[in-house]
Amino acid sequence: MPRPPFLRLDPDRQAAILSAAMKEFAEHGYRGASTNHIAATSGVSKGSLFYYFDGKDDLYLYCYDQSAKAFERELQQHRAEWSRDMLQRLRVMTETGLDILIRDPVIFALQTGFLAPEVAHLRERYMREHGQEAAGEFQYWFGDVERDRLRHDWATTVRLLMWTYVGIKMELAYTGPLPDDPVKFKEALMERLDLVINVLREALYID
């Protein structure tokens, strides 16, 4: 995460550094990204870059965190429109999220790349620092859904939903870069999700 000097920079300078870093990590992954190129593209020296961030790890985590927050902000704009049926909400939430990711290949690459083996050590660190925050956000997404006829207690139900959602993200991670035909890709993924939702409906609800 950034050091205080970065937060004191002019917002335009912050944005230039963040944009250059996000693009570099999105195009080349964590290992392949060049901090020299990030510094040159953003118009700062490499020494200044590491005056603002405590190494490549912190810079990468900040880029991922900012991409996640941008994704969540846009997703939240649609929440009021969603069904209170939790499985229908899971479907629409996934479809809306895919639309956001398809429109922005940089966010797509950062979000899916975060599940790659090469950043496992950073993923563990991020979850230690933000795990409770992520769990709270998931409760936010599903906290107001209908709970009638649930077969299991709410905590178990939320866990199943979380595991399903993480599974969707894992499948996205294995796609690599955004496919050439994103519409066809989205349709295929939603078709697979519909099969899973049908199974979940039987497992989660009492007839």
Reconstruct the topology from this structure.
Layout: H1 4-7, H2 11-32, H3 35-42, H4 46-52, H5 56-76, H6 86-103, H7 105-113, H8 120-142, H9 154-173, H10 182-204
Please give a handful of descriptors for the protein shown:
single chain; 207 residues; mainly alpha; Tetracycline Repressor, domain 2; 0% strand
DSSP E strands, number = 0
Structural class: mainly alpha
End-to-end distance: 48 Å
Q: Number of folding domains?
A: 1
Task: Catalogue the unreliable spans.
Answer: none
The CATH H-level superfamily is Tetracycline Repressor, domain 2
Element string (H = helix, E = strand):
HHHHHHHHHH
Strand content: under 5%
How much helicity do the residues have?
over 70%
Which term fits the overall shape? elongated
Q: CATH architecture, please?
A: Orthogonal Bundle
DSSP helical segment count: 10
- What kind of sheet is the major sheet? none
Q: What's the multimeric state?
A: single chain
Structural summary, described in words:
- This protein has a single domain, classed as Tetracycline Repressor, domain 2.
- The chain has ten helices and no strands.
- With 207 residues, it is an all-alpha fold.
